[in-house]
Q: What sequence folds into this?
């Protein structure tokens, strides 16, 4: 079976390509890229006026499977992904049971291969049971197919445990994804510490609780030489710490999530639990610093931290509500609306941060439209306006602060391994 995508604006940042051209897919790979291609018996997709980009790679997703399928599962989560143009996800290991052994890695890989809509790359934990004490069997997790380790949801509090974990990770060339947070400084805070938390009477979580931990993790990366990636950075000080580390030549990369460049803590006004996540939404100055970090390359990637929660876990007092928002079905539109249309990033830069860069950091061989690459493609109308309606989401959960927002960008088709799934 072959597919011919005609006359789209093909953007492939990995190869510096941004031009109108055709793409021929044969089987599960890209066969040819060029002008005026033809192929007998190919299914034709007319992409005139549309953008053809590598399927997006989201390196921070909670699929909640196994164990919390009332929030999401591998089928609904990957369905949501492809509706957002995402063709590869890294799923975080804070499931139930947690992904600290090869059986759970194998369960995820097998279920995703049988029933999933996109590529699923599991992350294993850093420590057994996410408990922060004993190291998980990192080599075994890698052998079973985990692409990274992370205790996401929790920081690894003990710096010596983190040091040893990085040393092991380095030996097995395993990527370490850090949820960097100092829980003593968080001190029970439930939103950003500042004017709005004071007005709302909510306990504040200061930016330094994040940046001090980012600084530790960068220092340990420098000391151990491990491949370290700092995820979901939200504030100006963290950007500065990572910028300085990169300038010194530390082997560190970073991502932020769309909500950190598109919302401030003012979204919490009204005690809106759909604007509650960890790290929390920050101030306009932080948003500006995050965008500057994206522009100058300090922040390599955009990942959603798609964190589904059931309505009963959000429809409670702000203090008690679970942290996290869903993101797979709005991430590209938020990037187009808040970064590209505002002139902060070019379209190829946005695509690079959502596909080529995360793929390179993970070493998963995706995020490109080169001949011979896996045929993971998103075809997008970047001019189309959409009104976000969570009722139409494929995710099982609806906890989005963007319900009702007017955004740009409609995903028209998503292709995974040569198969049209949207
Ligand atoms: O908001 C968040 N939700 N932050 C995390 O670190 C974990 C995540 C979750 O698992 O819900
Ligand atoms: Zn996290």
A:
């Amino acid at each position: 079976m072959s597919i011919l995508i005609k006359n789209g604006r093909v953007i492939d940042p990995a190869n510096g390509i941004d031009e109108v051209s055709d793409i021929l897919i044969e089987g599960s790979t890209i066969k040819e890229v060029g002008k005026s291609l033809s192929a007998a018996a190919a299914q034709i997709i007319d992409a005139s006026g549309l953008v053809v980009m590598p399927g997006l790679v989201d390196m921070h997703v909670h699929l909640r499977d196994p164990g919390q399928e009332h929030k999401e599962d591998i089928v609904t989560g990957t369905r949501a992904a492809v509706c957002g143009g995402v063709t590869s996800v890294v799923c975080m290991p804070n499931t139930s049971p947690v992904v600290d052994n090869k059986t759970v890695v194998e369960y995820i890989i097998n279920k995703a291969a049988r029933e999933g809509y996109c590529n699923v790359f599991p992350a294993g934990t850093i420590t057994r049971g996410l408990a922060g004490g004993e190291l998980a069997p990192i080599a075994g997790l890698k052998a079973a197919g985990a692409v990274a380790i992370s205790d996401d949801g929790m920081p690894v509090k003990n710096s010596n445990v983190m040091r040893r974990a990085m040393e092991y990770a380095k030996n097995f060339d395993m990527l370490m994804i850090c949820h960097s947070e100092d829980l003593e400084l968080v001190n029970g805070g439930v939103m950003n510490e500042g004017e709005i938390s004071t007005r709302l009477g909510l306990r504040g979580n200061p930016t330094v609780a994040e940046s001090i931990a980012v600084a530790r993790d960068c220092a340990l990366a420098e000391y151990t030489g491990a491949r370290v990636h700092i995820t979901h950075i939200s504030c100006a000080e963290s950007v500065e710490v990572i910028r300085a580390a990169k300038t010194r030549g530390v082997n560190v990369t970073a991502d932020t999530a769309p909500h950190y460049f598109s919302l401030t803590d003012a979204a919490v006004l009204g005690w809106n639990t759909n604007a509650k996540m960890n790290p929390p939404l920050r101030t306009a100055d932080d948003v500006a610093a995050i965008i500057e970090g994206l522009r100058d390359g300090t922040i390599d990637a955009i990942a959603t931290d798609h964190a589904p929660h059931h309505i009963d876990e959000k429809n409670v007092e702000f203090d008690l509500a679970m942290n996290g928002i869903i993101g797979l079905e709005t991430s590209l539109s938020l990037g187009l609306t808040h970064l590209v249309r505002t002139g902060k990033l070019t379209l190829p830069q946005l695509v690079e941060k959502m596909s080529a860069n995360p793929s390179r950091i993970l070493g998963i061989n995706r995020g490109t439209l080169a001949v011979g690459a896996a045929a993971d493609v998103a075809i997008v109308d970047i001019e189309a306006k959409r009104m976000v309606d969570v009722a139409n989401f494929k995710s099982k959960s609806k906890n989005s602060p963007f319900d009702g927002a007017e955004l740009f960008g409609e995903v028209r088709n998503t292709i995974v391994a040569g198969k049209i799934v949207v």
Summary: The radius of gyration is 20 Å.
